[in-house]
From TrEMBL:
Chain ranges of the WYL domain: 140-205
Protein name: Helix-turn-helix transcriptional regulator
Pfam families: WYL
InterPro entries documented for this protein: CBASS_pafABC_assoc_protein, WYL_dom
Length: 322
């Protein structure tokens, strides 16, 4: 082995996170301790002259040499990301393991071992949603490339009722995640903002037969769209008010850009207490959320939403009547 090959191998060992000593290197490569020390010194000098984002560290106590990436995440950051990722239940176990390992590789081995232990119990009991049965990472990568290249697609899609698989044409314009699933916002001449669940796409093929072009005026603000979406995006966008007897912050956190409508204590008391909150969202998701709140909520406006809530509650009650 030449001197150059040996130094390259030492550098690779350092990149792998190994903590090296001159004595261990001397024994591994059958050179003198002085030669190993010189190799480590040469690597230090080369790294100082390079623009590589690594710090070359010498621990005087353990007498070891190691490389530390300057752009590493902190252990707390990785722990937070992994706990949130596990909580979403979005990915199957193989992809969850892949993402976890890639994140853990960005922190020091000792810290990575500690973070892995802190996640061990929740990972052992991890149960993904049905979408996790499919490989999502390749689809995320592919759709991100199609969005960037503004590629029109022909595809078949399985709708939620599972009764039909429909062939369609669309231009993917955005990706987002909400409540267990990844979604793709597609543009077509018939609908400038239609949402599809990423895992329900069947055959997907770029097409040259149709070339869709998104008009600037029809472009969707993804952040604004997500703030108005709860569970479902269907129906018209609506501004609604409701009296809420639960902890106000619970509703405010669940409904972005919602706010408490000021009223006097006398008016509030006359109406049974609680607070009045105003929010904005799509009808289907709004109706689901309202129904999920039970007796802690009373819709005040608009009248159309009040009527729909009454109708759904009447239908629900009828199912329990003998």
């Amino acid at each position: 082995m030449t001197n150059t090959e040996r130094i390259i191998n030492v550098f690779i060992d350092l990149l792998h996170g190994d903590e090296l000593t001159p004595e261990a290197l001397a024994a591994k490569y059958q050179v003198t301790t002085r030669t190993a020390q010189r190799d480590l010194g040469s690597l230090r000098d080369l790294l100082q002259k390079s623009e590589l984002k690594y710090v070359y560290q010498h621990d005087m106590k353990t007498k070891t040499y190691a490389l530390r990436a300057m752009n590493q995440l902190t252990p707390a950051t990785v722990l937070a990301i992994l706990k949130q990722l596990i909580g979403t239940r979005a990915f199957g176990k193989p992809e969850l393991d892949q993402i976890s390992n890639e994140l853990l590789d960005l922190i020091e081995p000792t810290a990575a071992s500690q973070v892995r232990k802190l996640c061990a119990t929740t990972r052992a009991q991890y149960v993904p949603v049905s979408a996790g049965e499919k490989a999502l990472l390749p689809r995320l990568q592919q759709f991100s490339e199609w969005i960037a290249s503004q590629t029109t697609l022909t595809f078949t899609y399985e709708h939620s009722d599972r009764r039909h698989v429909q062939s369609e044409v669309g231009l993917p314009i955005s990706l987002y995640f909400s409540d267990f699933y990844f979604y793709v916002i597609m543009y077509s001449n018939q609908d400038p903002r239609r949402v599809y669940r990423l895992d329900r796409f069947k055959a997907i093929q770029p097409t040259q037969d149709v070339k869709l072009k998104l008009k600037l005026a029809e472009k969707t603000d993804e952040g604004d769209f997500m703030n108005k979406t709860y569970l479902l995006h269907g129906g018209n966008e609506t501004t609604y008010r409701f009296r809420y007897w639960g902890l106000p912050q619970t509703a405010l956190d669940r409904l972005p850009h919602s706010h408490v409508v000021p009223e006097t204590k006398k008016v509030a008391a006359a109406n049974g207490g609680g607070v009045v909150i105003e929010a904005n969202g799509f009808e289907q998701g709004t109706l689901l959320w309202v129904l999920s709140q039970g007796t802690t909520i009373k819709v005040l406006a608009p009248a159309s939403l009040v009527a729909k809530v009454k109708q759904e509650l009447t239908r629900t009650l009828a199912q329990y009547q003998e």
